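Fold Annotation — chain and its backbone
Encoding — discrete vocabulary of local shapes
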Amino acid sequence: MNNTITIKVNDETKAKMIDFYDYAKIEVNNPYIEFAAKTDDVRINIYKSNKVVFQGKDAINESKIWETLSWEYNDEHIGSDEVGTGDFFGPMIVTAVYLNEENIKKVSDLGVQDSKNLTDDKILKIVPQLLEFIPYSLLIMDNEKYNEMNQKGYNMNNLKAQLHNHAINTLRKKIKKDVKAVIDQFCLPQTYYKYLLGNPKIADNLVFTTKAESKSPSVAVASMISRYRFLLKYEEMNEKYKTTFPKGAGHHVDEFGKEFIKKHGVEELRKVAKLNFENLKNILTNKLL
């Protein structure tokens, strides 16, 4: 059976792969492919964009050789990420995860990667296995609390900073280690720390980087755990209101919101939605909260 596996690597790992597969190098007429090789069981295409495609019956095993190396952060560290910030319905969830070198290898073997590339079914299957051995700290801000804080002047990024800071401090206390923490950057570092002024304990030794899920296995796992709990929360909402809440913040959400109000009333919307989103204006028309 032939398989196709695609991974993303950094420049250092790409150079190691080109050197490693030099014995099996083949010529290809594709301007986007930097290097190609073919062994008895797998074909490897290494693209200039740092994407690597493995094709063949041994593609899965061959790709796993390089998955751990493809992480930019391979030493022990904490990663923190959030979900729910772009969804009108549902809570905001932040998770901080600690991984050492041994667990980085274990999570790679389980298929951990950028959660944006994983289906909900895959998340629901993998995460329970991760929770059995990974130290983490998870915080859920429900919609009522979110709306209360927003009315007090806290914007989305401010709330994210508060939750990340608390999750990282809690996890460091749990593991009794002050290891560095990687955060998927959502604002300038100086703005992040400004949001936290007045907090009794502001976590330091932080690394802010964009696209952190593809660079840090800890951030990737944190994103997966957050999304897992987000999916479970959605199921709880669906069960409570006997419906299926839409994700995102598009026009389909507006239409659903109007029907929700007809059935449950405007006040109930406070419990399930983020009221500072533009969707609220589209849903309420002339009604006022």
About this structure: The domain at 77-237 is CATH 3.30.420.10 (Nucleotidyltransferase; domain 5). The two ends are 59 Å apart (CA to CA).
